[in-house]
Amino acid sequence: MDIDSIAVHESVAKACPPESMVAALRGEVPVETVGDDAAFGAGDCVVTFSPRDAFLDAAWVHGVRAGYDEFDVAAYEAAGTALTNSTGIHGDTVPETVVGYLTAFARRLHVYRDRQGDRDWTHEPYEAPFTLAGERVCVVGLGTIGQGVADRAAALGMDVVGVRRSGDPVENVERVYTPDELAAAVADARFVVLCCPLTEATEGMVDAALLEAMRDDGYLVNVARGPVVVEDALLAALEEGSVAGAALDAHWAEPLPETHPLWDHESVIVTPHVAAFTNRYHEDVAALVRENLDRTARGESLRNRVA
């Protein structure tokens, strides 16, 4: 594969400034920002946030996110267009965000932040705050992000268990369950953190039965994809108090509609799909693209190729 030019699609603005991405990619191969009216050929690489049909005419398309469920993998394979994603660059950002959620719930920081606007000095009840040390967290999905969550949770003195398809051991995870053991894995966890990809197997995985299997003082954290959780089941669990709360960075509809009931839940932290965001995101993505440019020059396979 010979790459003659790199096109940064304007949709990357959802993750970082396109001009920053262009600057980070600038080198021997010409690079420019393009819009939806651009056409592509056999020597083009497209760096994008979202898919477009025209990209199938390029040689290679790189998605700036880890998730690629919006891309029609079969269509890319049929067209002979390489598709790569950005798995592996979120090992610090997303886990750090998860630690923020866990700490907020344990120390009640989200409640006090809400009260700050009302200049309300009210203390939480004595029994409400707790420490993370000694609490159990179940990390569902032990890839780059899940491993990062496990490492940080272990460093905080938490009891870490996890779920992965292979069931193979993972550093800093005391016990690894397989997906068919998911209910048992979450049963004793104060926190259940979803870090898995959205697939046919994981869509709707967190349903009413699984939420019922969780502790009633347990918290659900979703940094995966919205459809991994059954929306109505979570809303019912929150209303009934069968779970203590949830931190959601991935949603069923994005932006989350202004009328959605989650906005009004004191026990829910809503963030607008920003767990991976950092002011150097463009540099991390560009480093991955440049690595793959070098690989193509050497005739090697592309890193993170999914089609």
Structure description:
- It is a single chain.
- With 307 residues, the chain is α/β, with parallel strands linked by helices.
- Helix content is 29%, strand content 16%.
- A 7-stranded parallel sheet has the order 8-7-6-9-10-11-12.
- The protein starts with a strand and ends in a 10-residue tail after the last helix.
CATH fold-level assignment of the largest domain: Rossmann fold
What general form does the structure show?
elongated
- Kindly give the count of domains: 2
Main β sheet profile: 7 strands, parallel
Helical content (DSSP H or I, runs of 4+): 25-40%
Cα Rg: 21 Å
Structural class: alpha/beta
The separation of the N and C termini measures 14 Å
Mean model confidence by pLDDT: 97
Strand order across the largest sheet? 8-7-6-9-10-11-12
Q: In CATH terms, what is the architecture of the largest domain? A: 3-Layer(aba) Sandwich
Give a short synopsis of this structure.
The protein has 307 residues and is of the alpha/beta class. The chain has helices at 18-25, 73-79, 93-107, 109-116, 144-155, 182-186, 208-213, 231-240, 281-297, and strands at residues 5-9, 31-34, 44-48, 60-63, 82-84, 136-140, 159-163, 175-177, 191-194, 219-222, 245-248, 268-270.
Characteristic key phrases:
Rossmann fold, 9 helices, 307 residues, elongated, 16% strand, five-stranded parallel β-sheet, alpha/beta
Topology:
Blueprint: E1 5-9, H1 18-25, E2 31-34, E3 44-48, E4 60-63, H2 73-79, E5 82-84, H3 93-107, H4 109-116, E6 136-140, H5 144-155, E7 159-163, E8 175-177, H6 182-186, E9 191-194, H7 208-213, E10 219-222, H8 231-240, E11 245-248, E12 268-270, H9 281-297
Parallel strand pairs: 1-2, 1-3, 3-4, 4-5, 6-7, 6-9, 7-8, 9-10, 10-11, 11-12
